[in-house]
Protein 1
Amino acid sequence: MKKILINILILLTPVSLPAVAHGTEPHAALDISQAWARKTGARTASTAVYLDIKNLSEKVEKLLSVGSNRASMAMIHRSSEQDGIMRMEMQDTVEIRPGATVSFEPGGLHIMLTNLDEPLKQGQLFPLRLTFEHAGEVEIFVEVTGIAGLEKQ
Ligand SMILES: [Cu+2]
């Protein structure tokens, strides 16, 4: 009886709530943080989302797909400069090695959202779904920043 009571008490102990700021969501094997996108103008139909994904597990993790209810299409892109021209290439997956952090940042990896339902307004938070090989589907929140972007913490 005593053991059961202790177990119930543990269940009733408030667990830390997911912090929505900067898209942080506690997850057993992944630490996803600093998720942001710039605000968009009235006529802008697409935007890029940036974030950091740290693999806390001992297995190689793979980001397989992305999605958002704010956009009709979401893709993993990588920007690169070739002969002075910026190009974006679609990536099928992104590998995150054990203990490593992969940063999606301006000029490199990003999540491209196209056909936004409405312009993104500074201060908004919107959900983004990330599907991983091992961790499965993870929903995070993306912070809409001003034009300057997010100051890394
Ligand atoms: Cu892109």
Protein 2
Amino acid sequence: MSAHDPLERARELTEAAIGGDRRALARLLTAVENRTPVAEAALRTLYPMAGRAHLVGITGPPGAGKSTLVAALIAEVRAKGRPVGVVAVDPSSPITGGALLGDRVRMQSYASDRDVFIRSMAARGHAGGLASTSAAAAAVLDACGFDLVLLETVGTGQSEVEVAAAADTTVVLEAPEMGDEVQAIKAGLLEVADIVVVNKGDRPGAQRTASQLRAMLVAVARVGTSDRGHHGAAVPSEIDVHDAAGPQAASSPPSDRPRPKQPEVLVTTATTGEGIAELLASLDRHRAAGRGGGASAARLARAEAQVWAILGDRTRAELHAADRRDGTLAVLQAVADHELDPFTAVDRLLTSLRG
Ligand SMILES: Nc1nc2c(ncn2[C@@H]2O[C@H](COP(=O)(O)OP(=O)(O)OP(=O)(O)O)[C@@H](O)[C@H]2O)c(=O)[nH]1
Ligand SMILES: [Mg+2]
């Protein structure tokens, strides 16, 4: 019975994975990705053992060099003898995308290194699924002793940005050729950044892009400080670089308000490793400084992503259970026919769950 009983299977895989069995770890992550009963059982055991790792989100536009930067960071982290786990979320390619293959080839040299674990995950499932699945995958790696977990996502859609934003430290990558239209960069991406990296430092214009971004971030922080209500998408379309470095930078916000976070801007060349040691140092500083404040907000965001996703799954499952199924389908059909508004429908479904 052991091979088919999810509890037993989860216990075997969990013990093996904690003991350093990488195949078992890979299987657990597959279970997490597919949200199977094995994953649920394993996470019940593993979750309390997690919570120590530094979770770093790396996001940015397609082609900015995220995977290359992750490979360079792995080399830097391994040179220091620290273990590192990577979850690369690929929102576009289901299983066989070129990017995944490319990533694998780049990472090949770590095939025999037990302290490096790289996992590609396809984005699937309903809204919020991506954030909850990657948070769960990170928790598994964390529990298995990976003290640093890198989460690579393409910063194109809201859900991918949410994944990155739920990390303890969020790195937003840009490249110089994109920097020429710096105003066009999504405010949303910069808003989640703890560290901004201008990669492809070997290309012309990298330093200029970095200066523009620094100026832009100062301006954003200033708007955020003067604006009482929201720090929304407040990216000015015109920024005076000289003014931005001026006296305003020295004026401190009121003491009762947390200072809007102003990300550090670094320049790297991922292909040569230039600037990567500085990036790792910056990550470590952010980790050390963040215990408590920003990190607890990120932890709450991860908790929410996971709990709401599970609550949604459970609620749906209960409403489709044999004794409620017909009633649920009737309510859904009534909404489809515009005989019932969706709010009243939810009132009825919740009442049915309570009853
Ligand atoms: N010149 C130069 N090229 C780089 C650098 N970093 C990455 N590249 C190149 O940029 C291209 C894209 O790099 P990737 O690492 O695949 O970029 P990515 O952001 O992971 O791309 P997606 O996963 O498709 O969003 C590759 O051809 C890299 O070799 C760099 O520092 N300098
Ligand atoms: Mg990539």
